[in-house]
Request: fold
Amino acid sequence: DWRWISPEFFDAFRIPVRDGRKFSDSDTASSAPVAIVNEAFAKSFFGRPNVVGETIRLMGNDPARQIVGVIADVKARSGAGGMRFLNALAAPPPPTMYVPVAQLHDSSFTGSGFPINWIVRTSSAGVNVAPAVRQIVQGSAPLLPLLRIEPMDEVVARDLEMQRFLMILVGAFAAAAMGLAVIGMYGLTAY
Reply:
């Protein structure tokens, strides 16, 4: 996996840096290409946790990027297909590379269909901040569409819906099996 992020991403999600540094405002399109990887990436591709200073490449036409930091592994929704949604939280974190969005070339987004997600951390839990966020975004970028604003709790709950449904389904079948077993035992002893 790989993600284009802003310098504040790790602070917003409170993801600790294990080695090296976070992105800064000086990581721009005119500066040296850099990347940050998670611990799973470092172990999978380099076999060791201390990979700061190593060079990697995102895609064939992407410039070589120097790894400037290693972050802690986090559970995240992966781009992988298949049955990933059934055990997203039970699966080990995927190897992930993070690249500063300021180093993204405009041609990378042309027709790519990449969704853009904004993360806003607030100090007031339980308060609906959607109207304030919508007003701020509309004031600074009126053409930017805001399709959905939702708390992280709702995002996680939606990702776990299938697991919850399957647990309820298995529980219902187990209760039905138990009921049939009890009826069978009653019938056997009553005869």
